[in-house]
Amino acid sequence: MNTIPLPRADDAHTAERCDAARNRRLLLDAATLLVGERGVDAVTMEAVAARAGVGKGTVFRRFGSRGGLMQALLDHTEREFQEAFMTGPPPLGPGADPVDRLIAFGRARIALVEVQGELLRAAEASSSNRFDVPARAVTHTHIEALLRAADVGGDLPLVAHSLMASLEATLVLHQWRNLGYTLDRLADNWSDLVRRVATPPTTDGRTVL
């Protein structure tokens, strides 16, 4: 007699995890479409649920709150950027001088604000602790590693935090939209800032660029 093998417990667990990952991706894709169509303020738990064709409770169970959703959406949209600076071509990716990589990183981050600045701003504002999120931790580790590779002196963890502050979406959007600085000017200023940080002072205390 032929028997039909029963699914093993670990197979069922794997299938459940795949379903959870697929549902998470469905919800994040729905949120991304809403941002593109109606702006970040349209991204509510109810709107995402309706767009994804699921109940509102599903969104709350997955993300907990709008802040959790926004942070997950930010992490979702940042993966390509992270792949670019971690494994992509130079100067943003490996293979270039660390100072050139750091300059390319900031320029790319500032350029990204033009595309998804409102999403970045909303994620920063809606998180209960926007300084303790995975995307920020990856950025901090990357900047600190480049500073160390460039033989920059000082308290590198704090130097990395200081550099990151000038790239925060809330500040860049304010400088661009409210103060009238162009994104190119902000990018050039980032390059100048990095070179000043990375260039040791002369014997008379001046920094030669």
From TrEMBL:
Organism: Rhodococcus zopfii
Keyword DNA-binding: yes
Stretches assigned to the HTH tetR-type domain: 21-81
Protein name (database record): TetR/AcrR family transcriptional regulator
Signal sequence bounds: none
Record feature DNA-binding region, as residue ranges: 44-63
Pfam families assigned: TetR_N
UniProt KW keywords: DNA-binding
SUPFAM superfamilies, sorted: Homeodomain-like
